[in-house]
């Protein structure tokens, strides 16, 4: 196996350069020959993300209204977010509409996140006014036991208004899609009540589709939880934030395009010098060309497809690698953590002095 490139110039995604243009990237001319079949546009592969309007949750405003109307039953808000993007992609409307209640931020999926800069993350969040933060893994129930004591303390030290007489606590769990809100509820029940699933969990965004009735998660203190559907920000602040959200699975892959997302993933892994994909797919070495990587992945998976090509002598059927299946496998492998832990907000953590 070739050793991964160690030149100071970071590897860049072929197509991302046109749009992202980070100052350290050197854009290269696109070769039309190397485009993958079905690419929407070689120059603007992320255009489908529709920066500005996220578009993924059509009824986001409606959900927020429903959540707001349930606020009178609620003592504390637990916002769940993905630990791989601790600084970006949270919905600012949550603070505007639900911000009057005490707030705990749970950064979930810590098993998939590179948390070597945990202190910097916490300092950054504290500067944004977020003092109560817990990292969790709801699949393995790690740190989940810290949630109820933190909530109880927050509620104790805040004004409960008309709920002052109630002995029980009610928490509303909010967040963007697919970050593990329902998993947190199930994990809390496992930990405190030794009971099974109360709410459906799934690998795709949009599994929870209604503000649920209260679910008990603890006996002493008596705590109930309200599960809610994931709500994306109405405006995604930048293309890169949108891509990070999509990599974390908060947006359905087809809205961005699996091949485009795979390109951004390859770019990110190379920039962070995370070359686990080389070994995982048995490549000869690190590579910054997504078409080459996807071709190798497709061959390795034995995924090929027949396509009709119009030639001067008529239609010819040719067999070529199934780039789409390869891209989906690449994304799935990354999301399962098989390519190693990652911090997608690494750039946001660098102070100007560091760079
Ligand atoms: N690796 C890892 N996966 C997790 C963790 N927590 C949840 N998941 C997985 O993430 C996926 C989404 O979990 P859900 O609990 O359905 O997420 P949600 O936020 O309720 O999603 P919506 O209801 O669609 O908004 C599922 O496949 C879970 O198994 C975690 O801590 N680590
Ligand atoms: Mg859910």
From TrEMBL:
Q: Where does the record place Basic residues bias?
A: 34-43
The name of this protein is: Mitochondrial ribosome-associated GTPase 1
Highest taxon of the source?
Eukaryota
Q: CP-type G domain: from which residue to which, for each copy?
A: 63-234
| GO cellular component labels | mitochondrial inner membrane
Kindly give the SUPFAM superfamilies that the UniProt entry links to this protein.
Answer: P-loop containing nucleoside triphosphate hydrolases
Q: Where is this region: Disordered?
A: 1-44
Pfam family example for this protein? Answer: MMR_HSR1
Topological relation to the membrane, as annotated:
Peripheral membrane protein
Which keywords are on file for this protein? Answer: GTP-binding, Membrane, Mitochondrion, Mitochondrion inner membrane, Nucleotide-binding, Transit peptide
One GO MF term on file is:
GTPase activity
Q: Subunit info?
A: Associates with the mitochondrial ribosome large subunit; the association occurs in a GTP-dependent manner.
In the UniProt record, does the keyword Nucleotide-binding occur? yes
Q: Which organism is it from?
A: Hipposideros armiger (Great Himalayan leaf-nosed bat)
Its annotated compartments are: Mitochondrion inner membrane
Q: Which gene encodes it?
A: MTG1
Function summary: Plays a role in the regulation of the mitochondrial ribosome assembly and of translational activity. Displays mitochondrial GTPase activity.
Provide the organism lineage as a comma list: Eukaryota, Metazoa, Chordata, Craniata, Vertebrata
